[in-house]
Amino acid sequence: MNSLWIATIGTSVIAFALKYLGHNVPEKFFTHPKVQSINALIPIALLSALVAVQTFSEKSKLMIDHRLAGVGVAILALLLKAPFPVVVVSAAITSAVVYKFF
Amino acid sequence: MSRIESTTLRDSLSVSITVGAYGIAFGAAAVANGFSVLQSCLLSLLTFSGASQFAVVGVLGAGGSALSGIATASLLGIRNGLYGVIMAPRLHVQGFKRVVAAQVTIDESTAVALGAEVRGENAMRQGFWLTGFGVFIFWNLFTVAGALGAQAMGDIRAWGLDSAVPAAFLGLVWPRLRSNRDRALAVGCVIFALAMTPILPAGLPIIATAFIAIVVGLRA
């Protein structure tokens, strides 16, 4: 079994286990404000790191290429309060154009 | 189940269709990062949590190991567990129904349910189930479309898909950046992850930022 299958199945099993576990523990364990605060901060940290790594790296090398143009336009779209599909599509079009012509 | 309340139905449907449509971006991203169409569809059916799914394909696509992909996705999945804690006493379901409820416990179903709570317990439950099933159906249909579409494209860079993935992550994190502390954390994690990329094995710079979040959360 290759790593893609291990990742697919492992992620799925743990994702369900976490959801099911949540439905089976008493609410009082999780009302602490610090737990709530960490719960809100973890996605911010991981998603920001993913944006950075996916924009500026290939394997373990850092680089600036057409992807920065795409993500730059995505930031602009978000600042203009564009909906999610517009953000993604405008980034893809920009990136494809820069990749083709530069 | 009693009559479906129209406001709840409208909210659930609009959330289901718009959020479900992101499934196109996921299906395309998964295939662009080397996953097969079958694997992409299984992730949407079984993992059924957008951020976790994008994370696992992102980490493996960047050359990370299966373990770091699973770890990153699972850290993002913890919040679904906390939604379960909130929803369980409101839904009162047992056995197989609880298994189904758990699978559709995500950002959107919890948000619509809690939003509908002002209109009573019935509206709240309908909001949860309608949104949960609605997102599930559309998310999976659009995943198939996105995966097949990306498979037909060939060189993903020529279609800008390699930028669509970070743009999708950006779109997911953007609405969460509400305070200066949130924005400072985001910038800090960007710098940290980039600084660690040449040093640590792929995937670890991303997971490590979860600890920064914990430290910031504990100090606040």
Round the mean pLDDT of chain B to the nearest integer and report it. Answer: 91
| Element string of chain B (H = helix, E = strand) | HHHHHHHHHH
Structural class computed from helices and strand pairing of chain A: mainly alpha
Largest sheet strand order of chain A: 1-2
Tell me how many strands of chain A there are. Answer: 2
Report the uncertain regions of chain B: none
Unreliable parts of chain A: none
Q: What value does the Rg of chain B take, in angstroms?
A: 18 Å
Percentage of residues assigned to helices of chain A: over 70%
Kindly report how far apart the N and C termini of chain B lie: 44 Å
Supply the helix-strand structural class of chain B: mainly alpha
Total DSSP E strands of chain B? 0
Strand content of chain B: under 5%
Order of helices and strands of chain A: HHEEHH
Main sheet specs of chain B: none
What's the quaternary structure here?
Answer: heterodimer
Summarize the structure.
The complex is a heterodimer of chains A (102) and B (220). By secondary structure, chain A is mainly alpha-helical. Chain A has helices at 3-22, 33-56, 66-79, 84-101, and strands at residues 57-58, 61-62.
Structure description:
The complex is a heterodimer of chains A (102) and B (220). Chain A is mainly alpha-helical. In chain A, 75% of the residues lie in helices and 4% in strands. A two-stranded antiparallel sheet of chain A has the order 1-2. Chain B is mostly helical and 220 residues long. Chain B folds into 2 domains: 6-176, no CATH class; 177-220. Chain B is built from 10 helices and no strands. Chain B has helices at residues 6-32, 37-47, 50-61, 66-91, 95-103, 107-116, 121-153, 161-173, 180-196, 204-219. The longest helix of chain B has 33 residues, at 121-153. Chain B is globular. The relative contact order of chain B is 0.17. The chains are: A mainly alpha (102), B mainly alpha (220). At the A-B interface, helix 1, helix 2, strand 1, strand 2 and helix 3 of A face helix 1, helix 2, helix 3, helix 4 and helix 5 of B.
